[in-house]
From TrEMBL:
Main location: cytoplasm
Entry similarity comment: Belongs to the inositol monophosphatase superfamily.
Catalytic activities: a myo-inositol phosphate + H2O = myo-inositol + phosphate; alpha-D-galactose 1-phosphate + H2O = D-galactose + phosphate; 1D-myo-inositol 2-phosphate + H2O = myo-inositol + phosphate; glycerol 2-phosphate + H2O = glycerol + phosphate
Subcellular compartments: Cytoplasm
GO terms for cellular component: cytoplasm
Keyword terms: Cytoplasm, Hydrolase, Lithium, Magnesium, Metal-binding
Class of this enzyme: hydrolase
Listed EC numbers: 3.1.3.25
Lineage summary: Eukaryota, Metazoa, Chordata, Craniata, Vertebrata
GO-annotated molecular function: inositol monophosphate 1-phosphatase activity; metal ion binding
Protein's recorded name: Inositol-1-monophosphatase
Gene3D superfamilies xref list: 3.40.190.80, Fructose-1,6-Bisphosphatase, subunit A, domain 1
Binding sites annotated in the UniProt record for Mg(2+): 72, 92, 94-95, 222
Listed InterPro entries: IMPase, Inositol_monoP_metal-BS, Inositol_monoPase_Li-sen, Inositol_monophosphatase-like, Inositol_monophosphatase_CS
Length: 281
């Protein structure tokens, strides 16, 4: 299985690089950044998101015809979001579509691969920075081949925390997001940042630049690849109320260590969006 998995991962890296090239080229063509919307007027999608997801899935199907897929744009088009024990590719063709539309320079192709409902490897290609983040379970995390290690900071007051505002603008949700943000700023922490892509935020945790990232409202395709990259860089994952993380729950804390994670959890005003798999929270 070892060599088989490596072969699959090598394909994921190659196709992520190819997809990144398409995204870079599309940035120079306004038509390919024309905006359509999904769940809300600020949940954006472009033909490039759809084209890149199609490219990845077709390429994988040719080589691994029995594998299954959970892709952001396929789910938006009505496909089920179900994780089984079968080998499954979990794909976000453009993580940071809003950034892409505005040429804000953090845009990633994110690919996680799951077997037995466990993420086996993750590939995040931050394509405008040309940074290829990779991690295979038990084998470490890397950026362009260089090993990654989370920060060793234990004191949240000396930390940078990353988060995002998401695309839900219902008053109650916005209130909760700001309540968490206010609590965290008031700890006080050194700073709060957000790259505009969950996958890149998680890679920043893995790289040791920020101590923790949290968000409520993300989807499994935003965080599947990043989850194994964070863990393989020595970090921890948690639910926003401190329990074990569930990638379908749309709630995540990714941190350099348990001390920082638990401290952040205390300040998060948690809520429960509809799960990706439609099950009850
Ligand atoms: O929709 P994309 O750009 O794939 O993913 C983004 C989410 O939509 C947004 O809600 C979230 O805040 C952001 O972190 C994520 O990457
Ligand atoms: Mg995304
Ligand atoms: Mg996306």
């Amino acid at each position: 299985m070892d060599d088989v998995l490596q072969n699959i991962m090598d394909h994921a890296v190659a196709v992520a690089r190819e997809a990144g090239q398409v995204v870079r080229e599309a940035l120079c063509d306004e038509k390919q950044r024309d905006v359509m919307t999904k769940s809300s007027t600020v949940d954006l999608v472009t033909q490039t998101d759809q084209r890149v997801e199609h490219l990845i899935i077709q390429s994988v199907k040719k080589k691994f015809p029995t594998h299954r897929f959970i892709g952001e744009e396929s789910v938006a088009a009505g496909e089920a979001c179900v994780l089984t024990d079968d080998p499954t590719w979990i794909i976000d063709p453009i993580d940071g579509t809003t950034n892409f539309v505005h040429s804000f320079p953090f845009v990633a192709v994110s690919i996680g691969f799951s077997v037995d409902k466990k993420i086996q490897f993750g590939v995040v290609y931050s394509c405008l920075e040309d940074k290829m983040f990779t991690a295979r379970r038990g084998k470490g995390a890397f950026c362009n081949g260089e090993p990654l290690q989370v920060s060793d900071q234990e004191d949240v007051r000396r930390s940078i925390i990353a988060t995002e505002f998401g695309s839900n603008r219902e008053t109650e949700t916005v209130e909760k997001i700001f309540s968490s943000l206010r609590n965290i700023l008031n700890i006080p922490v050194h700073g709060v940042r957000g790259a505009g892509t969950a996958a890149v935020n998680m890679c920043l945790v893995a790289s040791g630049c920020v101590e923790a990232y949290y968000e409520v409202g993300v989807h499994v395709w935003d965080v599947a690849a990043g989850s194994v990259i964070v863990e393989e860089a020595g970090g921890v994952l948690m639910d926003v109320e401190g329990g074990p993380v569930d990638l379908m729950s749309r709630r995540i804390v990714a941190a350099n260590n348990g001390t920082v994670a638990h401290r952040i959890v205390k300040e998060i005003d948690a809520f429960s969006p509809t799960r990706d798999d439609g099950r009850d929270q």
